[in-house]
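Researcher: Predict the fold of Sec-independent protein translocase protein TatA.
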Amino acid sequence: MLNNIGLPGLLLIAVVVLVLFGRGKISSLMGEVGKGITAFKKGVKEGGQEIEDDSVQPRDVTPEAEKDKA
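Model: Structure tokens for Sec-independent protein translocase protein TatA follow.
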């Protein structure tokens, strides 16, 4: 169904979205999307560094009551 949307169709959709939401709302929305992408990339990078870091030791999170049973 969406295979035959060409350049004129995409331009029409863009104009309708611009008229409905306005330029200010769209630009602020894109700014928020950019901030989200940046935060995601930062989180992935920090997570990768944490995994590669040898100083991170596994910790025992077993409750004290369960440790006595073993």
